[in-house]
Amino acid sequence: MRAGAIKPLRRPVLWATLWWLAVLVVIVVCLIPPPPIPVPENGDKVEHFLAYFILAGSAVQLYRRGRPLAWVGVGLVLMGIGIEFAQGALTADRVADPMDALANGIGVLAGLAIAATPLRDLLLRWRG
Q1: Could you tell me the CA-to-CA distances from 113 to 56, 78, 106 in Å, in that order?
Q2: Closest Cα to residue 62, out of 72, 74, 53?
Q3: Which residue, 114, 101, 96, is CA-closest to 45?
């Protein structure tokens, strides 16, 4: 991303690093063996939605509206699809599920929708 892609935050490198770490955590968690926690049937779709909603919603706080944020959205959707392919091809205890990719994409769209609300600049207004 270009330097102008990030909002004029007080500590942009810190926030960008935290966001990219969150992206990495989602990738790792989706590719390691799942924990033995019982989840209701299709309950994992809520987890997928929430993970991508949080990533996209926090990207709204970090990246400017327009092209930078659109590219982040496209990247997150592609990441969700890619992870599903990787689960099917690279793991023995995970299964590729197109409905997971759909839940990811809906989460991205819902998170990006924050850009159309006054909540889009919470981090920018927060000066701690």
Answers
A1: 9, 18, 11
A2: 72
A3: 101
The model's pLDDT over 49-59, given as tens digits with 9 standing for 90+, comes to: 999 999 999 99
Tell me how far apart the 2 most distant CA atoms of the chain are, in Å.
46
CA atoms within 13 Å, Cβ hemisphere of 112: 20
Task: State pTM to two decimals.
Answer: 0.91
Residues 59, 56: Cα–Cα separation, whole Å: 5
Query: What's the rounded Cα separation, in Å, for the pair 109 and 51?
Result: 12
Q: What is the DSSP letter of 74?
A: H
**Do the beta carbons of residue 112 and residue 73 sit within 8 Å?**
yes
User: Residue 9: what residue type?
Assistant: L
In terms of Cβ atoms closer than 10 Å to its own Cβ (0-12, 13-18, 19+), residue 67 is: exposed
Handedness of CA 98, 102, 104, 105 (dihedral sign): positive
63/121 Cα distance (integer angstroms): 10
Q: Which regions in the chain score pLDDT beneath 50?
A: 128
